[in-house]
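pls design
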């Protein structure tokens, strides 16, 4: 049996040996915490500097492109290039932050390289949008401010991003279309040319003078101040319908004036035809007897005619007196 003094001496000796170990561990933990705090502080500074650098680089890129005559008035290239530069600066800053925190970026790059096939398959839609955005920027089928029609959806282009094309229609609705869909569909650029042709179809009765009707419509187009003299307005018979003859009016205008001039010519043509006494027929309905039933055909009226009230008809008045 061990005596008590011997046990106390062993405990004291063990405590004396343990004290230096605890002090060394505490000093090491303190150094690690200090290094971590310093690295976190430097990483935060790098992150803030990255945000500032991204804004500065984007601003510098925009100013540099504005000095190039070909890109000065092209918002499509400006917005696309600025966004690419901003994303690149963010990626560089993110890698610097990881390196400062002790993350082995070379290992991360190796892992990403090994998993590139899986990532590519998972993000093939997103990557195709980026590739399509680059092709749209190179091919230039439209630019910011153009009015385009993509798959039946029309609107004015607001911006071209890495992933999407943003448009705004006449009702100021925001339309976002993926770039891959834009590139894979039919793109109808309504304002890609400086001039546009207006085409309006009018109908007149079969008994009317067609040359007179054509002359009236041509005079309306020629009198409009925004209709271009070259090519000159054109009118012609373009269809024989069931109850009317179709006359088409063509007029060329600047692209920016297309909507308003089309409305003006449509209204002016209708008023001029009415003033010339030329009939614009409307659909008629005819009742056809079926079997042995005797059905009276309904009376047809011209525009402007009215039926007389029942009280003004002599036969109705005589029936009431009887």
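designed seq:
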């Amino acid at each position: 049996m061990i005596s008590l003094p011997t046990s106390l001496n062993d405990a004291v000796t063990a405590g004396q040996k343990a004290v230096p170990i605890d002090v060394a561990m505490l000093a090491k933990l303190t150094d690690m915490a200090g290094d971590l705090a310093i690295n976190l502080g430097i990483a935060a500074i790098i992150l803030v500097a990255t945000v500032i650098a991204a804004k500065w680089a984007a601003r510098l890129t925009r100013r540099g492109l504005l000095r190039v005559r070909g890109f000065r008035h092209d918002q499509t290239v400006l917005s696309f290039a600025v966004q690419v530069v901003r994303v690149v600066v963010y990626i560089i800053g993110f890698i610097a932050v990881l390196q400062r925190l002790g993350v082995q970026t070379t290992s991360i790059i190796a892992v990403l390289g090994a998993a590139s096939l899986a990532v590519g398959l998972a993000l093939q839609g997103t990557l195709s949008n980026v590739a399509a955005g680059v092709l749209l920027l190179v091919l230039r089928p439209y630019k910011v401010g153009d009015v385009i029609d993509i798959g039946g959806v029309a609107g004015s282009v607001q911006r071209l991003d890495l992933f999407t094309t943003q448009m705004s229609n006449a009702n100021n609705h925001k339309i976002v279309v993926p770039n891959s869909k834009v590139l894979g569909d039919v793109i109808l650029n309504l304002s890609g040319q400086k001039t546009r042709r207006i085409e309006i179809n009018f109908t007149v009765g079969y008994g009317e003078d067609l040359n007179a009707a054509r002359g009236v419509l041509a005079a309306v187009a020629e009198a409009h101040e925004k209709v271009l003299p070259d090519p000159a307005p054109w009118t012609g018979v373009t269809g024989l319908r069931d109850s009317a003859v179709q006359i088409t009016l063509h007029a060329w205008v600047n692209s920016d004036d297309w909507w308003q001039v089309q409305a003006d010519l449509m209204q002016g043509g209708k008023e001029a035809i009415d003033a010339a006494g030329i009939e614009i027929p409307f659909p008629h309905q005819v009742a056809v007897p079926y079997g042995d039933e005797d059905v009276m055909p309904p009376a047809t009226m011209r525009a402007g005619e009215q039926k007389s009230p029942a009280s003004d008809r002599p036969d109705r008045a005589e029936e009431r007196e009887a």
